[in-house]
Amino acid sequence: MNTTKKDKGILLVVSGPSGAGKGTICAAIRKIFPKLNYSISMTTRAPRKGEVEGTSYFFRTNEEFEKLIKEDAFLEYARVYDHYYGTPKKYALDKIENGESVLLEIDIQGAMQVKQRYPQGVFVYVVPPSLDVLSARIHGRGTDSEEVIQKRLAKITDELAMAHKYDYIIVNDVLEDAVHKVCSILEAESCKLSRNEGQVEVIFNQYINKEVGSK
Amino acid sequence: MNTTKKDKGILLVVSGPSGAGKGTICAAIRKIFPKLNYSISMTTRAPRKGEVEGTSYFFRTNEEFEKLIKEDAFLEYARVYDHYYGTPKKYALDKIENGESVLLEIDIQGAMQVKQRYPQGVFVYVVPPSLDVLSARIHGRGTDSEEVIQKRLAKITDELAMAHKYDYIIVNDVLEDAVHKVCSILEAESCKLSRNEGQVEVIFNQYINKEVGSK
């Protein structure tokens, strides 16, 4: 019977200002680590064309969402205009408890809530190399009105001031480099002593038993 | 004029029991990062055939070495039988102050001294996958007497107990995997917020100045 303490997985939180490129980075990470679990948001807004329940989002009614808030079922949540968006706690924490890691892509406000509720997470701040690049990226999407874009850009200095609350910072200049850095962070964190106490115990016992056995 | 605080380099300490494979790992790391500085030990023993001053070791007299001990010039040192061995402090700390990283391969006793004198270092513990593998590796070298080998193997449980004082642990089962993990640790550590305060300040100022300029 194996009574050794099982080492937990990692909650890898990739965050940053809108336009920093965190979505592109996370998509690349998921291709590199297809077995890495990906946290899916829950929302009360209606599915858009092509969106799939449980893949794009978990779609819930307002009543269902508010019931879950009362049950403290979210790592973070926010109300944006008329709709709720949140990160279900159970999915991520069950995987982590089972030794699996979970990738969570999220804005800065959300990441700060996650940090309060799960400070053991690994928090990565992705920053665009310059305001010009950021502006070009947001405009290039073509999904937001000029007013929304200006609001986003105005928020950037406040958002940069939050960087010091993170564990790691990545300047997303060359995408491949940024992706490689996130992979390195995930690999390095999995070698942390604090994340391998069960593993260390197994090795330690193996040596001690052998030593006793060889006497 | 650039008055921004310059970010320091990393002291990467690769340590572990004799036979763990830290020398092989460090040799591979140096090939991958040819610009990574490598800390060279100082000793009072005579050069062996083929050893080169400043490459294999810095060779010094007993008097010179003891003078340096009094000047607190070592990150660690030890007397083994009739000779001193030590890691000069100035070389490593000058490079680190200049933003460059330094690789230091060292035994566990030495690493613990380094940790006392430079706790900001990154301490990696390399452990062999089993006592059989460790024993086979030490015997395979063919450089030590059976008595020395048995002494080394007897030390192993004490040395394993020191693992929890390190930042990272790597089980050296497949060499390529172990080398890759050390590379990831070096890369991840260089993304730590605490190691990029100067860089963050530069980015922050750039955004603030642009914002002011665009008003």
TrEMBL record, chains A, B:
Positions of the Guanylate kinase-like domain: 9-187
Record-annotated membrane-spanning stretches: none
Location(s) in or outside the cell: Cytoplasm
Record GO cellular component, one term: cytosol
Broad enzyme group: transferase
InterPro entries membership: GK/Ca_channel_bsu, Guanylate_kin-like_dom, Guanylate_kinase, Guanylate_kinase_CS, P-loop_NTPase
Binding-site residues for ATP, renumbered to this chain: 16-23
UniProt entry keywords in alphabetical sequence: ATP-binding, Cytoplasm, Kinase, Nucleotide-binding, Transferase
SUPFAM superfamilies listed in its UniProt record: P-loop containing nucleoside triphosphate hydrolases
Example of a GO MF term: GMP kinase activity
EC number(s) per entry: 2.7.4.8
Reactions mediated catalytically: GMP + ATP = GDP + ADP
Similarity section: Belongs to the guanylate kinase family.
NCBIfam families: guanyl_kin
Role noted for this protein: Essential for recycling GMP and indirectly, cGMP.
Protein name: Guanylate kinase
Organism this protein belongs to: Allisonella histaminiformans
